[in-house]
Every structure is written in structure tokens, then in C-alpha cells.
Amino acid sequence: MKRVLPPLNALRAFEAAGRLGSFKEAAAELHVTHGAVSQQVRLLEEWLGASLFERHHRRVTLTAAAKAYLEEIGPLFEQLSQATARYGVPETLSRTLSVNAPATFTLRWLVPRLATFRAEHPDVEVKVETSNGPLESLKESYDIVIRGGPDTFYGYSMRPFLSEERLPVCSPALLQRVPLRSPGDLRQHTLLHTSSLPRLWPDWLASTQLAALRPAATLTFDHFYLTLQAAIDGIGIAMGPTALVSDDLAAGRLVAPFDGPRLRSRSYCTYIADEKSGDELVVQFRSWLEREGMCS
């Protein structure tokens, strides 16, 4: 006889949610989003033609039939795990670590350094998504969120790992064409702006007593990484965050024509949900970020 089996991914989501009593905790255990668990449970309910959970404001409870169903299938998952381990498949399978970070930070600081973390943890898949939105607006659950700070959010632990300042940077070729001997020489140059950070140049010029300075031209980009790329390409001079241009300064792709003044900026911080604070891999990634931050 042909076996009648429900969708196995949906069954796995139901087993975890029922055993833990929480869609959120099931999502953390399975390394998927809360929405994915909810969708799989709904799929199983449609397949069975019966409700499995009673949904309340902030919690779910098993129906009587679902509780009986879970009591029968729960031991089967444990048997499957033991059998798999017994026949040669390692108990510790590869994990996915989900990270959400600002786009420019990801492109210019995180990605160039990820190879070192992967070398230390070859069995870990790091999934990086970029966003500049506030932490409380994120619709998915991530293992680690990187944002400016320090800020305080209920239900999250925060630790800074990378500080930075901002100062003018440009390509060496640009200085060869039009030298910069003092801040006043900026009148002969194109100043590069980012639309989301409109006060960088005005604040820096004001700190040099040149608030009324008018440059030869201005050019504005909608993303900060485009502004920095324009500086590398010799198009103009950008206000560079020291943390994100340190590699370019070391490689000679950019130079800082003035040592100061430097505008103070917020630090980069890790924000970890309280329920993930005991996850060994999450803690290891946070520690790795802090080590890399000390070297930058």
C-alpha cells in the first residue's frame, strides 16, 4: 500500500512549534523566520483539514487533537535523529547564521573580512541581508543585527565593536591634478555628498571656520557607497568614515589630505535578541566582529 505522508517540512515545523509551545522559538531552532513556521503549520492544517493551534494575542496552544498527534509523532523525530547519527551522519550539521547590516558597512567592511570567519567556521553558512532601517522596523528575525549606536532596545543586548570618525578623503590622482594644501583649497574641487547624510560637509566646513566656502561643484548620490566609489575614481572629495575607508587608505586607493578636524560619529554595534544570547554560534560571531573591530 502507498504510504500516506503529510508534507515533511510542514510536519517538522509543527513538531517544533508544538514541542516548544512557540512559533518564535520554533523559528529560532529551525533557523527560519517566524512567518515561515506559520506558513508551514497552515499548510499542514490545510492538508489534514483540521486546526492544530488555537491562536491567541501573543501565544498559541495546541488543540486536543493536535496534542494527541504530537505525542505520537514526537518520538518518531527523535528516533530518526538517533538513527541518522548511528549510521554515520554527524549530529552537528551545517548551520546558517543570519545577519542584517547597513549596505555600505556590509560592502566596504564586513564582506572583505568574512573569509576569516568562514575559515574558522567552515560548516557555517553566513546569510547577510542589507538594510538601513531601524531595528524595530525589521519584519524578520535575525541572529545578529548591526546598526549604529549605542542604542537601547527592549528584548535586545547591545555591544559596540567598531568606532569611527569622519574626515575628507580623495584619490591620490586627484591631488596630483589639483593639490590641496589647506581646507580653503576645497574651493577648486568637487565635493561629493550623500542625500541621506546632508550635514557632513557643512558640519566639517564649519569646524574649520569655512562655513561659507563654495566649492567648484557638488555631486550628490543616494547611497553612501556610491559616494565613496566616486572618490576612489577621482571624481571629487568625500567625507569618509574612517572605519569604512581604512582598507582603501592602507592600499593607497584613497588618501586623507587633512589629518583633522575629524567629525565624531556613532559606533557600529551588535544587537542580539535575548532569546538568541545563549546561542554559541551567535556569541562566536559577535566575538569575531569585536576582534576584527579592534584591528581596524
TrEMBL record:
InterPro entries: LysR-type_TF_proteobact-type, LysR_HTH_N, LysR_subst-bd, WH-like_DNA-bd_sf, WH_DNA-bd_sf. Residues 6-63 form the HTH lysR-type domain. The keyword ATP-binding does not apply. The keyword DNA-binding applies. Belongs to the LysR transcriptional regulatory family. This is Transcriptional regulator GcvA. Keywords: DNA-binding, Transcription, Transcription regulation. SUPFAM superfamilies: Periplasmic binding protein-like II, Winged helix' DNA-binding domain. Pfam families: HTH_1 (PF00126), LysR_substrate (PF03466).
